[in-house]
Structure formats: structure tokens, C-alpha cells
User: Fold this.
Amino acid sequence: MRRGIAATALVATLALAATACGGDTKDDGGQKAGGELSGTVTWWDTSNDAEKASFQKIAEAFTAKHPKVTVKYVNVPYGDAQNKVKNAFSSGADAPDVIRADVGWVADFASLGYLDEVPADTAKKIDTEFLPQAAASGRFEGKTYAVPQVIDTLGLFYNKKMLADAGVQPPKTLEELKAAATAIKAKTGKTGLYLRGDDSYWFLPFIYGEGGDLVDAKTKTVTVDNAAGVKGFKAARDLVTSGAAVTNATDGWTNMQTAFKSGEVAMMINGPWAVADSYAGDQFKDKSNLGVAPVPAGSAKAGAPQGGHDLAVYAGSKNTAAAHAFVEYMTSQEVQVQSAKDLSLLPTRTAAYEQPDVKSSEMVQFFKPAVDKAVERAWIPENGSLFEPLKVEYTKAVTGASTPEDAAKAAGTEFRKILKGWK
Amino acid sequence: MAADTSRSVAKAADGETTLAARGPSRTTAKNAGSPRGGLRRALATHWYAWTMAAPVVLVLGVIVGWPLVRGIYLSLTNANERNVARTIGVRHIDATYEFVGLDNYTEVLGDPVFWQRLVWTVVWTVACVSLTFVLGLTLATMLNRQFRGRAAYRMALILPWAVPGFVSVFAWRFLFNRDNGILNKVLDGGGISAIPWLDDPTWAKLSVIAVNVWLGIPFMMVALLGGLQSIPGELYEAAEMDGAGPWQRFRHITLPGLRAVSMTVILLSTIWTFNMFPVIFLLTRGGPGDSTEILVTQAFREAFIASPRDFAGSATWGVLILGLLMIFALVYRRSLRKQGEVW
Assistant:
């Protein structure tokens, strides 16, 4: 068996060496006369530290299907990725062939002409075989530019043991959350909730909870600064001032995961991508200690944003045929089932949810209904860039540097600068 | 040397007669009477200087001049990511941006954000430079005497300079971390509650200044130490004979003796601090909120955070920053000249 792999690898390497010169320069590079794919596919993956090894293994296994294609796996930290991708795409130098794009970036990249359209037959499959809300994120102006890889939303992660010690149930509303936090502090001395103060994505449940949203794309209106928006800022601020939650203005991800994994806080708001990392912590050696509940409801409802990642091919790739084949492979049912099993990430293919490995995953069982109810975001090119000014104001609001009213107003002003001509 | 050359070239350009005497007589005879001949003769005479200077002029032109001109031009247009020329694989998209005159400048200067950033940038620069200078001078004075292990102390104090800036800044970021940072662990041990180093606007401002001062001291110290060692020891001996105390010696010998060095390092340090991107960006990303954002980090934000990227807006910020620094340098130079310092 082992020798078999080595031999295959050797043959693949030799074949690659023999074809490398031709494959790179030709415009139709990657497509050999016989229809066999060859060349190199560079993939920029944005998955986090806990996930990347698994994705690298899956990606490199592509060569089992297409021995003449070499996959070059590059992990780009999510926080810097949007900028790096843009730099690479606009200069064309060392640009990746395939990127893992946050669902909020697809429309942006597509509107700038950076993405290659998905082949017609794949696009048809996306319409019929994928979750409709996931498919929506890959479309821009009627064309399909990206294939959904994973879908996600936010939920309330909780430490079952800590909640049981404090004698509280997983909270369903912000009121219950505060009561639970008080009980936890009284019984265990720990804080109830970690609230990420340095990333505005984590703020969305609060604004949705009050019935608000960032923008209304249909009427081209900025809604972050309306009454519901202000209430959203107030709700988040209130959690910190009441002592129910702790927050940071920097290094939020690390601090949140450290605090949750070590049992310093009992709850956090997070998505399926945090599951693998959380399991690595002391508190969750016994995986069953990790519970997930819907995000706490505000005064209007409980709402979490629909997120996820799509795979897209660079329009300037020299190897589009192989790149598209790679995307198809990475979004295939087997691969999605694999990442659901290893990393608790949610598939985007409807049929994948029938697979035993997916069905038996507790996290998938929780998140699938949550995703179905998640608030679909406005798939506009500016989607990704709204988060930066929102972050500035959200951080000010939760750390008390600004009042919720001022923060909402300032966010609205910044949004209107980005969305020229919107109300 | 350079000044010499240019002076003779200028002379060469303004007339035949002066040159006739200076240049080799053969060429003078041939080209007498034509102004173009004067130029050619100047080139012929100083060809060596021209050849030696050409690479420098060329490189400066390419890496400084062209981007500068281009930046100024961009700031007068509405260029952004959507309308600049770009090549995507085999497809080339032509530029479609337009000239808009001073619109960008009126927009930036009319926005309170610019003035808020400017105020903090000035506070940050003045605080950093004065602290760095005072501490650097103190350390330099302390090290400018014979004592055991002097070399070791000098090494230790110069160390921050040897570590790449971003490494130090990330190290500080770990130290400052409110929940898991060493600083708060130490304070906690001493019974003091955790300080929100990077989470509170005021503390964050103090933190970035502290890190920048820490990074800037070695340069100040080394430069001033060099200056101190060039002050003749006899002056101190003479002053001591005349009964001057330590403070008087420092005030009337050391400070005036360091004048030339300190004026230079203050000017350099001011320009560096004014544009100190990495410390702010890596330590706080301009946060919490936007409280530690200085002009350069804001310019970065304008160019690279929003989509489509606003190249014209960012160029405008860049040109304004350059303008401010040039005004500062001019005023500074003039005030030095008034004090009799030739610079």
C-alpha cells in the first residue's frame, strides 16, 4: 500500500516535470489534448489553525484523481486575506488560482472582474443540489462566480458543566443570559459570557435581535442607525456594563477561545468553525461537555447571520480548467462529508445531510436548523467593507468610549460614505 | 564635492567667456559662439561627474520622483479600484478615472476626521520625541563615563534596535494583553486589578507611546553618546576649576556641545514618529475604535480597508502628510538658522 503511494507520487512528479514547461505558458494550460488535466493549482485557504491541516490533506488528495495536477496549498490568515487576495488579483503576480472567499467577498471580487464564471454545468448543479441560501452567496448580477464550500451561522456555545454547577439552563433571551451570568458568577466566580469586542461580525445577532439590519439592499437604505440599530448597540453595551460579559478591543479571537477553553467564561457566541478548536481545550476533553444553543433573542427575535465560505477561480488563472475541477472536487459531497466529520463544518449540498457521518454529528444537528433560519445578508459588493467602520463604532460602544446612540449614528455616516447614493 | 560640481556647471551655463578660460582650449575654439556648444562643452568638461551622478539621479527619479509625481497626480483624480487600469490574466482593462481638481482636498480638509487625526498625531509625535530625547540623553550621560561593565550596558540598551520592529511590537502586544498578558499577571500578583492596556482609549494611547519610546531610545542614546564623546574633556576640567557644579556643567557645556547632534536627531525622530505606521497598526490597529489612529494609518485605512479601494483619497492623505512634514522641516530649519546654526 505504502509503496503504491510512493510509486504514484513518483510517476506524478515525473509527469509533472515532463509537462511543467508547456503547462505554464500556454493559454489553454492545464488542458492536455486527451482531456487530462495537468499543471499546478495554487489554493489560498483561509481556514483557522485548528482546521488547516485537515483541509491541506483533503486538497492535496486531489492528485489521486488527477495525478498530473499539483496542488499548492497556501494558508492565508482570514483577517488579512481580503487585502492579500485583492493585491494579488489586481497585480496578477503570484495570484492564486483558487481562493476560499468569505461569502461576503464574492460580490466584491466579482464586481471588480477578478473572478472566472463557474462553468455552466456546475452552475446548474449549484441551482439544484445546493442549499438555496448558500447558492445565493455565489451569484452576482445573475451570474454564478463561486461554489459554496461551507455554510455557517452563529450560535451560543456553552460549557454544560459550568451551567449545571450554577443550576441554570442555556439562556434563550438576553434577560435570561444576564440572570444566568449572575448565577454563574455567584456559584463559580467565573464570568458568564465572552463578547468579542474587536470584530463586528459578532455584533450582528444583537442588531438582528432587535429587528434591525445593517442595510436594506432592496430600497438602498442604510438601516444600522435606525431605532432598532441603536437598540442593538445598547444591548451589546448593556451586557458588558452589567457584568454579564467580558470583552476586549484587541486579540478578541485568541482571548475568547482561551477563556472559553480554560473555563474562565461559561459561554461565548461563535460559529461551527470554532468547534474543532474548542474541543482541543481542557474543558472539552469530553466532547459532550460542549453545548450549543441558538443565539439569545433580543426584544424582537433571535437572529444570527448567515455566513460561510465559497470557492472561486481567479479570472486571470493560467490553469482555469484544472482550477475549476479542483473547486468541484473541494465542494463535492465526499469532501463536505469529510469536513463535517473532522471539523463539524456544515455541508452546502442538500444530499450531504443524508449521510450517516453528517447525521450523527451533534454540531451539524444543531447548526443545520439554525442555518435554515439564519438571516441572509445583502450580497452587495460593499458587504465586506461595511464591517471595518462598523467594528470601529461597535468597539467604541462596548468599551464605553462612545454612547450607543453616537456609535449607531457614526456607523450610519460611514456606511453612506461607502454606499454612495444610498439613503 | 557635489556642490562644487554644480556650481561650475551653473557657471558653464551662463556664458562662454567664463568657460573659455576654464575649459580645455581645444573645445573652446571649436564651439565658440553657440549656446548649445556651451552645454556640450559643459558636459564634455564634467562628463565624469555627470556619469558618476547619473545612476543616483536615475534611481532617485524612479523610486522617489515618479511615485511622488504619480501620487500627486492621483490625488487630483477620482481613481479607485474600479476604474484604474488592471490586467487580469490575458484581459486588460483600461483606466477610466477622471481629473477632478482639488475636490479630494476639500473633502478631506472639510472632514472633522482629518483634524482629529492631526491633533492626535501631533500629540503623539511631541510626546514620543520629547520622552525619547530626555530618556536617551539621560542614558547617554550615564553611559558616558568609565565604569565596570560599560560595554554590557551599552549592548543591553541598544538591543531594542537590533530586534526587527514588528517582532518587538508583537511581543509588546502579548505583554499588554489584558486577560493573558504578563503585565497584568504581574499587577495581579501585586494586588492591583487588571489594566485595560489596549482596550481603553487613554491607556491605549499611553501604551503605543510607551512602545514607541522604547523602540526609539537606542537611536537617540547612540547618537547623543557620540555627541557627548566629541565634547573636549578640558572644558569640563576648566569649568570644574572655576567651581561649576554638575548641573551647571551639564547646562552650559553638555547641552550646547550637543546642539548640532540633538537638532538633527530631533528632526529625524520627529519625521519618523509622525509616520510611525507599524507601532500603531500592529499594536492596536488604530483602536480601540479609532482612538490611536494617526494620519498614516488613516491613509492606509482609506486605501486598503474600504471597497472599492480609494486610491485618490489615499494619495490625498499622503500628499497632505508630506506637505505637513515639509512645512515643519522648513520652519525648523529657519528657527535653527536664526539661532546661528548653519544647516
Notes: The CA atoms of residues 125 and 349 of chain A lie 10 Å apart.
